[in-house]
Amino acid sequence: MHWGGDLGTLSESQLARFVAAQTVAVPPSSIGDPAVLSLVPVASEGWSGTPGLTGHRGNRTVEPSFSLADLAFTEENRIAVTLADSAAGLEVRIELSLSTEGLLEARSSVTNTGVDRFILGRLGITLPIAPRAREVLDVTGRWPFERRPQRRELAHGSWSRQTRHGRNGHDSPELLAAGTLGFGFRAGEVWAVHLAYSGDHDVYAESHPTGHAVLGAAELLAPGEVQLDPGESYSSPQVLAAWSAGGLDGVSERFHAWTRQRSRTRHRGAGDRPVILNTWEAVYFDHDEEQLSQLASIAASVGVERFVLDDGWMIGRTDDSRALGDWIVDPVRWPNGLAPLVDHVRALGMDFGLWVEPEMVSLDSDVARAHPEWVLTGWPERLPLAWRNQFALDLDNPAAFDAVLAQLCVLVDEYEIAYLKWDQNRDLLGGSAHRQTLATWRLMAELNARYPALEIESCSSGGGRTDLGVLQFTDRVWPSDSNDPLERQRIQRYSSIVLPPEVIGSHLGAAGAHTTGRETDLGFRLATAFFCSAGVEWDLTKASDEELASVRTWIAAYKEHRFLLHSGVTVRADPVDPALELHGVVAADRSEAIFAAVCLEAPRDAVTTGLVFLGLDPGMEYRVEPIDLGAPVRYFHAKPQWLLDGGVTLPGRILSEIGIAWPPLQPQQALVLRAVRV
Ligand code: DGJ
């Protein structure tokens, strides 16, 4: 009946009158009863949109017609609805819970209560949106340009984002939002859904001539993938949904608060996320103990707290054509094992992380030679097309699962690993995405249980797996292989609608971005990597003393401010000129905030006003000053007076509603500023 603003406390009779008043009339040439939308709508209710549930028995389509069997308040703000159709032999349970922050968690499950096998087609959750939701925004992308926004009018029909990668994919519809015309980060009413799942997705927005408009989400199942014998059940992935009257920032506020609340026991607290050095773009497969030890020494000297050895350490792994599945240290390039490097890293005061890709296998590996039956195939059994020269290991096979788990445990024990960078570098293209995804989650859960302090980063050729489902078992996601700050501005802007910034990895790369070839200033790279879970992915052995001094200053500033950066409210201005973007993080008590004024390309105007510091307390006064990140910022011409003065003190109302003069930043420059309540 209603998904939107709080209706306040309603008496039972007010509620009944509300429902009655929402009930539509019966139009000509239609079913004889007023149409009512359910959470799992099916044809027998008169629903002709995407069904909430489909399936068959033998050669017969099952056409359920459910009645309410039970409605229970299981906890505060949590209800469970049970629907049953004994003739169809199905029982559906829908659990809904609304967090204090206003995030809706919805999950459905179906049990086969019949006498023969039920083959499930789909089971999802459908949520109503108001007729004024006229535009849809979702994200797409490709390697390494993830989370690109796309918008369209919500016309009659279905805008369905189906993904069949066996992982979320670089085009993952991580966010699907519908809103009032022109909705943005700060403006408009928005309804948004996220499927907290690491496998195949169907996320959609639909509008029908019947007057119904919905957002829906379900796991995209392959035909015959889920077969339920009598008594067996299937549970849908969790659907997370947020409504906001204050644009996408309001959606983020609900998602971030919920994720932080859920994460409290698992993830490191705000202010405690270590600065990482990742070796990938520094050395790739070119592993040399002496060089990497030198890199570790320099990393520690500039303030890095965690050293992560990326791909290339396994037996024979001198390129990407072999050795996946053989989780054994290469005796040629690492004749003394990893211990000397690990000891060195620890002696320098850093902890040690290691790259692994547990779900994969190379045909050129001992494991594939010994167990060809562990390589995941579809049916008929033949290998899928190779992707980066590799194949998936069938983790649903208990022997393969146990073998990879045992190898991971040996590594974690032997090297007292603090952090695994868990990579996944291919689309499955064969085999059951459903079973493989759940088996992967089980493997992660098993490691969580055995090593409660072990942190895991979810990486999938960059941002191919960054959902809130995998974040139940992991601590950080790698949103893109692009360390190009210009691309990263957008990737981080749109990744952080659903994900809080502290779980999004952001690395300082070399001046020439390896993925795009674009050359950028150190200052722009530092300002961009400052805002999420910061790290370095650059061969610091080749950096000049001046550059190292800049990195040291940047890391010190990051450590000083990371509590705020990782606990505050994310704010993003809707740009007047697309060349100029403002984003920031405001402390929960609004006592301080950090903002970045970013110039992406040549601005439209020579000078401009309206640099707003969103989210400040209008009744308080703030001092705004630049933060020194260690490298210069370049300007087109003379700075405005407030910047020449080193800052400005003004009431929050003026700073956040009217703003001040923009600094005349050159393209691909950013100025980071701190506002402190005086
Ligand atoms: C893909 C990842 O996204 C990279 O960061 C790196 O770990 C490589 N794989 C290693 O093969």
Features:
678 residues, 10-stranded antiparallel β-sheet, globular, binds (2R,3S,4R,5S)-2-(hydroxymethyl)piperidine-3,4,5-triol, 33 strands, 8-stranded parallel β-sheet, 13 helices, 22% helix, alpha+beta
Q: Summed up, what is this model?
A:
With 678 residues, the chain is α+β, with helices and mostly antiparallel strands. The protein is built from 13 helices and 33 strands. Helix 4 (289-302) runs parallel beside helix 5 (339-347) and helix 9 packs parallel to helix 10.
Indicate the topology.
Layout: H1 12-22, E1 53-57, E2 60-61, E3 67-75, E4 78-85, E5 90-98, E6 103-112, E7 118-128, E8 135-142, E9 145-153, E10 157-163, E11 176-179, E12 190-196, E13 201-207, E14 213-219, E15 226-228, E16 233-235, E17 238-244, H2 247-263, E18 276-278, H3 280-283, H4 289-302, E19 306-309, H5 339-347, E20 351-356, E21 360-361, H6 366-370, E22 391-392, H7 398-415, E23 419-422, H8 433-450, E24 455-458, E25 476-477, H9 485-495, E26 505-508, H10 522-529, E27 533-536, H11 545-565, E28 569-572, E29 580-586, E30 592-599, E31 621-626, H12 641-644, E32 648-651, H13 652-658, E33 669-677
Parallel strand pairs: 18-19, 18-27, 19-20, 20-23, 23-24, 24-25, 26-27
Antiparallel strand pairs: 1-2, 1-7, 3-4, 4-5, 5-6, 6-16, 6-17, 7-14, 7-15, 8-9, 8-11, 10-13, 11-12, 12-17, 13-14, 21-22, 28-29, 29-30, 30-33, 31-32, 31-33
Number of helices: 13
User: What characterizes the major β-sheet?
Assistant: 10 strands, antiparallel
Cofactors and ligands: (2R,3S,4R,5S)-2-(hydroxymethyl)piperidine-3,4,5-triol
β-strand percent reads: 25-35%
Regions with little confidence, pLDDT below 50 for 5+ residues: none
Helix content: 10-25%
Mean of residue pLDDT values? 97
End-to-end separation: 47 Å
Q: What is the CA-based Rg, rounded?
A: 26 Å
Q: Count all strands and give the number.
A: 33
Overall SS class:
alpha+beta
How would the global form be characterised? globular
